[in-house]
Amino acid sequence: MKHLTPLVLLACGSFNPITNMHMRLFELARDHLHQTGKYRVIGGIISPVSDDYGKQGLAAAKHRIKMAQFALETSEWIRVDPWESEQGQWSETVTVLRHHYKELLKSHHIRKLPGENNWPIEKAAGASLASSLSVIPELKLLCGADILKTFQTPNLWKEEHIGEIVGKFGLVCISRAGSDPAQYIPESKLLSRYQHNIYLVREWIQNEISATHIRHALRKGQSVKYLLPDSVISYIKQHNIYTEESEQKNEGDMLKPLKRYGAVINSFND
Question: Are 130 and 137 in contact (CB under 8 A)?
Answer without folding.
Answer: no
